[in-house]
Specification:
CATH architecture: Sandwich
Number of strands: 17
CATH topology: Jelly Rolls
Distance between the termini: 33 Å
Structural class: mainly beta
Largest sheet: 9 strands, antiparallel
CATH class: Mainly Beta
Number of domains: 1
Order of helices and strands: HEEEEEEEEEEEEEEEEE
Shape: globular
Helix content: under 10%
Amino acid sequence: MSKARVGATLMVISLAAFALNCGVAATAPGIRLDVGSNPDPGTPSNPSASSDTFADLQLDSHWSGYVLLPPAYSICGTCQPDGPEGSWFIQQGISSPSLSGSSMQFGLGPHSVKYADILWNNKFTKRLANEKSVPNYHEFTYEVYFYGEDLEKSQALEFDINQFFNGMSFIWGHECRIAGGHEWDTWDNVNKHWVKSGIPCNPLSNAWNHLVIQVSRTADDRLQFKSITLNGVTHTVNRFDHPSATTWYGMTINYQMDGDSEQEPYTVYLDKVRFSYK
């Protein structure tokens, strides 16, 4: 990630998590790219019996997309899915490549703005059995398989878990810098910048990558970044952070694709997407 954008992307996540009119989910009708598929590299981990889970989110209808433009990386309220500042699309029901038989395609198209990002989120608050239960949850797991033909075109891929209540914003931001240096970063909520983890991030192109992120909120309301598992290799993060302030309420996950210095278009497929909380 360029110096100009370091720390900028996550500054808008709390807004993006609940904005209703600043972006739209875009679908490119009829797109089916047959680029082949690989055998399932593993079975997704099963949450414990006491967990609640939103499973198969690649089939879910609640994804919303937003363009984030430099240098401020605030949501572009006037940007359209077909550009010119930023372009993006999603397509569900992709049979190949797929592990489940129905993956979801996320596309970052050619932009006139270099280092532009596309953020998608999925909101769970109103789908909980009790909306007021959001503060009760402390343990979170974000699990996903992702596939790209040429992931080196990505400046970074970002996977975030967000919880907001009682004026506190808990953003467990995880960024896999690819063109930006093949390392995992986590988000500093207080100082608004990325923290290098020292953990390598080398996802495979033309193959399914299995990612599991585990985090928690401690009894004294601190964020704990617990572990990152990529393709069966687990690295302990064990970094603690404090929440920042917010007026938002709820629980979401984010998936983000960052453009590189050439703003090269690229596509990533997600499958077997699961979010567990307890």
